[in-house]
């Protein structure tokens, strides 16, 4: 198996900011939008990859004032590979990362579909190192079923070769779940335990999965759904679970959350289901899809999800659902009926929408990245979970100057919304509809940056 670590200096970053009324010249700032303190930037809408390269941005993580972006990439017709780029606060590539600002790592040999609806990534900072997790069709080794990949990068953008080493690429951990294509899977959450062990969570065929690794990248075979039954664990109900969040309790228990009915489950330190949580280990809120979960200081959990609603004026709207769970996973009736509060976003033109990113700001407010009908929006909620009316534009959600495919696959989930130091907001997502006036090529890797 031939493995290559690649970089290209000609990778160009383009960043955009909210409330931009239209394109401005690449490399220029669009000024400030009226009625808002947010700065508006637009330097071209997309990352322009070198000739022969393609890419998708599927996750990001804060690295001080910089942003590390993770996704898929190919070069010169090669197989789908793991792509990582580091972007400075001024929206330029940080060339201290791998010498060029971009790293491309071959994971598997042979042809593999790059733009797969079953592909997602997670990214986490481990001190000054970057840990990346992924799974899906773009990482399927032909004839060998689904693979979950975990890799760790040094601060200079090079692979940490002391980690993993179970695949053909030194420094990369590969684990198979068996089966064959097509198989719906994603790795969308990473958490570091206090003892140094790494938890990787996601979903396989509509069920939660969690695996655990030692700090060296070696599989922790003591972590399993059933004692002594093998490495890793998959849990699920008849619902379609998707791990959008994974949080660690102080006692070492693990809560995974996301997907249909705002599903959540809690695991013991051993990997077994904690049946004292919710109802027989699970909690849910019917009618909404889970997007993000946080553990509160008092031990309770705050979850956010979304659901479509019909508008009296015709068309569809998006309702954001906040749910409060007690430390035992029971709905908090003091928060609202069945522990939920629903807030319908204004406007009837954002039907078929979904929440693709969520973040808690330093002051406790909640920021959401919302997509629908090819358009993208940001909405903000106050600490009492009411809609921040001052953040709306003309009474409607704040529209971003970026278009997405008309229908975004729900499985293409990841850490699309990230808050870096100095309260900078970044959105990283796919874009398959941008037209490049030059020779045909894919230009579907973009980021959006905004601020309060």
Question: What topology emerges from the helices and strands here?
Answer:
Blueprint: E1 5-6, E2 15-16, E3 28-32, E4 39-42, E5 54-63, E6 66-74, E7 81-87, E8 102-106, E9 120-126, E10 129-135, E11 146-153, E12 172-178, E13 185-192, E14 198-204, E15 207-213, E16 233-235, E17 241-248, E18 254-260, E19 264-267, E20 282-283, E21 289-295, E22 301-310, E23 316-325, E24 340-344, E25 354-360, E26 366-372, E27 375-381, E28 398-399, E29 417-420, E30 424-430, E31 445-450
Notes on the protein architecture:
- This protein is an all-beta fold and 452 residues long.
- The chain has one domain: Neuraminidase.
- It is 0% helix and 42% strand.
- It contains no helices and 31 strands.
- The chain has strands at residues 5-6, 15-16, 28-32, 39-42, 54-63, 66-74, 81-87, 102-106, 120-126, 129-135, 146-153, 172-178, 185-192, 198-204, 207-213, 233-235, 241-248, 254-260, 264-267, 282-283, 289-295, 301-310, 316-325, 340-344, 354-360, 366-372, 375-381, 398-399, 417-420, 424-430, 445-450.
- Strands 17, 18, 19, 20, 21, 22, 23 and 24 form an eight-stranded antiparallel β-sheet that branches.
- The model is unreliable at 1-48, 109-118, 137-143 and 431-452 (pLDDT under 50).
